Amino acid sequence: MRSRAGVFVGNLVFTAVCLSVAPFFLLVGWSAWADDPGWGWPALAICCGLGGTIMIPVLASTSTRQEYPRITRRDRVKGERTSYGNDSFVMWAPRSPKGSEQAELVRADVLEASLVRYRPEGEATFTTHSGNYTPDEFTPLIKLRLRVYGAEVSDAAARFEVTGECRVPSLCLSAITAGRLAVLVHPAPPGTQRTAVPLWPSSALLAGARTARVIDLEGRTSVVTRRVERQLRQMRISREAGGIAMTGDTLDLRRLDPHTAARLNALADQDRAYPEEPAPVSEPGEEARRLADQLPGEAGAFGSVGRRWSRRGGVLVRARFLEMRARTTFQDHGPVLDTVLRVQPADGTPPFDAARRLTVPMDYLTVLHRTKEVVLVVSPNSVSYVVDWARTNLLAGVTEAAVITPDAQELPLTGRPDLIWALMNLLASHGISVTTPVLDLRKRRMSTVAGMALHMVRSHSEPHTCA
Questions:
Q1: Which residue from 35, 55, 94, 236 puts its CA 20 to 30 A from 149's CA?
Q2: How far apart are the first and last CA of the chain?
Q3: Where are the beta strands (DSSP E) in 239-351?
Q4: Cα–Cα distance between 249 and 262 in angstroms, integer?
């Protein structure tokens, strides 16, 4: 990861080149002023040149803050802006078209997925599309093969398969990896191919990427995340009512009109009497729809370590996204999102929430149904936190991690985030950089940590998923 100073110097040089005419005007105006003092064109040239020259470091500093993902005290959420639980995640994604009233909202499973096209031309710069949250340039085109169900999932006669290409908002990519979509099926004349149009924000909810709770008319709260049948019925009622907005990740039936609230409350009563088991985090066959390897992002690694940072007591901490909100600004490797994170300080003090505008890599967005965790590098004085996407992607399973033992045995670590986290901290505390996803304990520079690392690998439990 580049240092903040390096990013600032690069932006300073770039801005100076772009505004190089400003110092030129300043010099020309100053030279002319010496020969003809007054408030004529020399004074105007000096004012314009001076203003442009001052803007060079200002714009460079602004660009650096936007590009360099550092969290400081001023990013901390003030007051009661967020009241989310530790397992909450709220997503504001671009809306999908409502479709015709005759269309039926049903479930579809993703059998196969592959990237057709994603070729933005913005390079590393920020590109803004005013008023457009899903410009084609920054919205990947994905080929999908779907198995579409009827209104009742058990009705085998109503099922059909369909293959097609569609644009997928980057915030909703994890719905494809999870393998569950909410789609609209439009009526088709006999003998013609039926079509299915995905509803992407609803699909992210159905896939469990976004958490969901319902407060019934008696004030009781129930968790409906990954309760697929109940969510589908709620979506149909919401669609008939013209749409129902959630407050964060919660739907409060006491705030709805009586007719809609009664229908949704009946679903809650039914679920309380006959609880629905949550669907799996990911449907079987994830390998056939994995998009992380096909989309841009930072390659996962155990991470680089600055010796000075390590000697002075720098540490790593884990944080968790509580909120992501789509914007109209993009970089090639991911959208710029308004986010809220809950940070757990390393010194054991209470966690705090921070609001920060971040560029989130596309490959990380494909696994939001599985994890919302992120790795932060803490400065030695504990006043700033920097998002480390290489470590984050390794912890999230975007990149497969492995350890090679001293006797050349390769041990996969994928699906074992707590073990990966322990190894990251071991390496960081000893000032050892490993810029790949493979920790090779045979190397000489690993001699001081090889024994401890091997003990960690053998003593940790079987693989599991992180939340």
A1: 94
A2: 25
A3: 250-252, 315-325, 329-331, 334-343
A4: 20
Tally DSSP H helices, then E strands, for the chain: 12, 20
Q: Give residue for tokens 């999230």.
A: 396
Question: Taking each helix axis from N to C terminus, what angle separates 4-18 and 41-67, rounded to the nearest 10 degrees?
Answer: 150
pTM of this prediction exceeds 0.90: no
What one-character-per-residue DSSP string does 326-372 give?
--SEEETTEEEEEEEEEE--TTSPPPEEEEEEEE--HHHHTTTTT--
Backbone angles phi, psi at 183, to 5 degrees: -130, 155
DSSP assignment string, 190-241 = TTS---EEE-HHHHHHHTTSS--EEE-TTS-EEE-TT-HHHHHHHHHHHHHT
Task: Output the CA–CA distances (angstroms, integers) from residue 405 to 135, 329, 408, 453, in the order listed.
Answer: 47, 44, 5, 9
CB 317 within 8 A of CB 346: yes
pLDDT digits (tens, 9 = 90+) for 239-290: 999 999 888 899 999 999 999 999 999 999 999 999 999 999 999 999 999 9
Q: Which amino acid is at 141?
A: L
Quick check: helix, strand or coil at residue 255?
A: helix
Instruction: Burial-class residue 215 by CB neighbours within 10 Å (0-12, 13-18, 19+).
Output: middle
Q: Round to whole Å and give the CA distance between 19 and 333.
A: 27
d(CA 46, CA 49): 5
